[in-house]
Design a protein that fits this description.
The chain is mainly α and 169 residues long. It has one domain. The chain is 53% helix and 0% strand. The chain has eight helices and no strands. The longest helix is centred in the middle third of the chain and has 27 residues. The protein binds zinc ion. The site of zinc ion has 6 residues, from loops. Zinc ion binds next to loops.
């Protein structure tokens, strides 16, 4: 089952991004090629080794796999493998959490997809020449900012958020 109900812990723009991703409306290179846009390469801009499909871009690229691994470890989840955007949108590991942490885990997964996309675009367009140095750290930072701004004061503890793994209770 896809958990596509709106996530209240993150900005609307991220929810809209997820909605588009769910519907496959995404300008990765194979999709642009399919609709007849002429590109000089179809290879993934990150590894330059494999054709950039949706699943490759968001899940299968070796660098992205490492990001997911660190995100799962951060939340104390082991032995989770994801192979497609669908797998990720299914919120793997969600049943390990209760209450507020279910909502937060969903927010973290959605934030991760968003940061992966921002990083991919910076690699292609090199906006301001500013690359994201550590995608995992960026996920921690963004999700903290977003979730804490939408929670009661001091509800999200900075030390715990960045200390990890996240407590399950
Ligand atoms: Zn790649």
């Amino acid at each position: 089952m896809i958990h596509l109900e709106w996530c209240k812990s993150i900005p609307k723009k991220v929810c809209v991004f997820i909605w588009r991703l769910y519907h496959g409306r995404f300008p990765v290179r194979t999709i642009l090629d399919d609709i007849g846009i002429d590109l000089h390469t179809l290879l993934c801009p990150s590894c330059n080794d494999v054709i950039e499909t949706l699943n490759h871009c968001f899940v299968l690229c070796p660098k992205v796999q490492l990001v997911w691994k660190r995100v799962f470890e951060w939340w104390g989840l082991e032995n989770i493998d994801v192979f497609s955007v669908q797998d990720v949108l299914n919120l793997p590991g969600i049943n390990s959490f209760n209450g507020i942490n279910r909502e937060r885990w969903k927010a973290v997964i959605w934030s991760t997809l968003y940061v992966i996309w921002c990083n991919r675009n910076q690699m292609i367009f090199r906006r301001n020449g500013s690359m994201i140095p550590d995608v995992f750290k960026e996920v921690q930072l963004r999700s903290f900012e977003w979730i804490s701004a939408r929670s009661k004061k001091d509800e999200v503890k900075q030390e715990e958020w960045f200390g990890g793994p996240i407590d399950r209770v």
